[in-house]
Please model this.
Amino acid sequence: MASADQEVNEPAGLNSARARVRMRVPSVAERVAEELRYQLAEGFLVPGSKLTEATIAEDLGVSRNTVREAFAELAGERLLLRQPNKGVFVATLEAGDIHDVYTVRRAIEVSSLRAGGSPERVAAVRAAVDEGKRAAEANDNEGLGSANQHFHGAIVALAESNRLNTIMAQILAEMRLYFHKATLNAHFYSDWLTENERICSALEAGELERAGDLLLAYLNRSEQQQTAIHGA
Amino acid sequence: MASADQEVNEPAGLNSARARVRMRVPSVAERVAEELRYQLAEGFLVPGSKLTEATIAEDLGVSRNTVREAFAELAGERLLLRQPNKGVFVATLEAGDIHDVYTVRRAIEVSSLRAGGSPERVAAVRAAVDEGKRAAEANDNEGLGSANQHFHGAIVALAESNRLNTIMAQILAEMRLYFHKATLNAHFYSDWLTENERICSALEAGELERAGDLLLAYLNRSEQQQTAIHGA
DNA sequence: TCTGCTGGATTGTTCAACGATCCAGCGATC
DNA sequence: GATCGCTGGATCGTTGAACAATCCAGCAGA
Model:
């Protein structure tokens, strides 16, 4: 969600009149969690593979306890699965998980969209649509995927709710993990583009009910497609 | 959520034909987290108070590292707030938090209710309503509160989504923490009872749209009341 | 009154250790 | 040959101790 690099080379900022935002230096455990999140999203760690505490600790040059703390965080986000006395594993798609994930998305995305949002938030949705168009013109499959995630994230952001935003961020992280590059072909993307465009237009026109219906239909269709590819 | 006592005095069960459910002995860290959750829900730990690692570790007779792990879990559930190098504190109600919480509830409760559910799940909703009635007759304020929580939990359970259930459980835990006994008077409860009854009846009658509207109106009203009591 | 230092307390992180648990392999038994 | 039971190794769960980093309150001095 945020870039990896941490810019802490500007201590002069402390002397400004009001140093309101405390420049947070993430703890080691958080950085480990961030690194693992990155590797999960990027597909370096495939679902089902085992993560040994000692190995990760050595690879990243941190203590085993610190790795444990990171594991606990990621397990809370459902990205890792902890099996007592056996180890932690990259989460795998269980039966019913697809329906489960889409149930959550239907609830929070449609609800957020139907309630509308400030002009700035609506503009953010439009920006995500444009981002997708540009990626399509550039034949950038990777970019198309993240643009689509930005689109749905922007829809939830309409509600201005921190809790909904973090829930959605976790759901999107799960989807990145499960439905990785292999399952994403151009067919899906072209579908997204036109659909996102229509939803965004309806939103901008204030036709919230219709926008919600479109989004709901899209999510149902997407669930069917994913279910067809992976198991139930 | 579950009772504290763990019954592990029946090793004979292992000899049965199919020992399907592995009797899980919660780890020490989980038990610590459970104990803290209990104390938070019960109001022994008031919002804003500080929890010192060493103190908790000594009180519960566990290691400081184990307490840390429990803290991390509860911080992930927004029940505790971690301030780097300062300590962990019981979460307090920040500006906008009430609206935030109710935004989540509107999204997932109304969505779940509008989609209906299996007869068993609907019966569970009815059971929660009855539980509230019995508590009212017995003048059991404590029981009324938990009955209401069961009611709203049962509504979300209609959707048969593990993820939605855990989200709702966390939200309810937050509300127990924030809106504790002090803020709960008989006035609120009587309102709940009749409203829950109407919603449940509409659900049973299959009038899902109307049930959703009733729930939505109730949540809006409840948010206004809570906002009036606590700050914005 | 404001500034800057200092000491104590607490957290962040590491390390080493030990028991508990799981798993694979291997031999013994029927 | 298949099943059972054992055993050893690997890994996890938890502990205790240690040390650096950070924060905070109090105090001295300008």
